[in-house]
Amino acid sequence: MDKFMKVAFEEAQRGYDEGGIPIGSVLMHQGKILGQGHNTRVQKGSVVLHGEMQALENAGRQPAAVYQDCTLYTTLSPCPMCSGAILLYGIPRVVVAENKTFMGEEALLRERGVEVTVTDDAACYELMQKFIREQPAVWNEDIGV
To answer: Quick one: which of 65, 81, 63 has its CA closest to 25?
Structure first.
């Protein structure tokens, strides 16, 4: 696990420890973290605060040229909402820790020119599976089931 995905995993673990959904994300620009976050839908009673959205929010407002030179790291394949944000801001690279638990819009991202790399990280997968066993209804709510 590279250092940026390690931070994303730590964010996911933080979300789990808070009683939320363990998905973390990091927005990286030129070797530095601009923003990081984790899914806080449960903790904040939000419908939109996925890990990727939190990382973007925590990065603050950036010029288009910055987004267009970023890599987004996420512990789980990005959903349609988060993929839309990736496309909207022109983020060219996404590194996904795992997509066995949930296959997001990777095909759409690739179709639109985004470089998507899946690392098949076992620790991220195991944390998600543990959470789903413990809170299946919350997981289903998060993915719209």
So the answer is: 81
Provide the annotated active-site residues.
52
Name the pTM for this structure. Answer: 0.96
Q: What is the pLDDT of residues 24-68, one digit of tens each?
A: 999 999 999 999 999 999 999 998 999 999 999 999 999 999 999
Residue 98 near residue 74 (C-beta atoms within 8 A): no
Residue 4, pLDDT > 80, answer yes
Choose among 74, 68, 70, 18: nearest CA to 50: 74
Of 111, 107, 114, the closest CA to residue 92 belongs to: 114
Distance of CA 16 to the CA centre of its chain: 14
Q: Could you report the per-residue pLDDT of 92-108, keeping only the tens digit for each?
A: 999 999 999 999 999 99
Beta bridge partner(s), residue 28: 33, 71
Cα–Cα dist 145/70, whole Å: 31
130's tokens: 């543990």
Q: Cα separations (Å) of 130 from 43, 101, 123?
A: 18, 11, 11
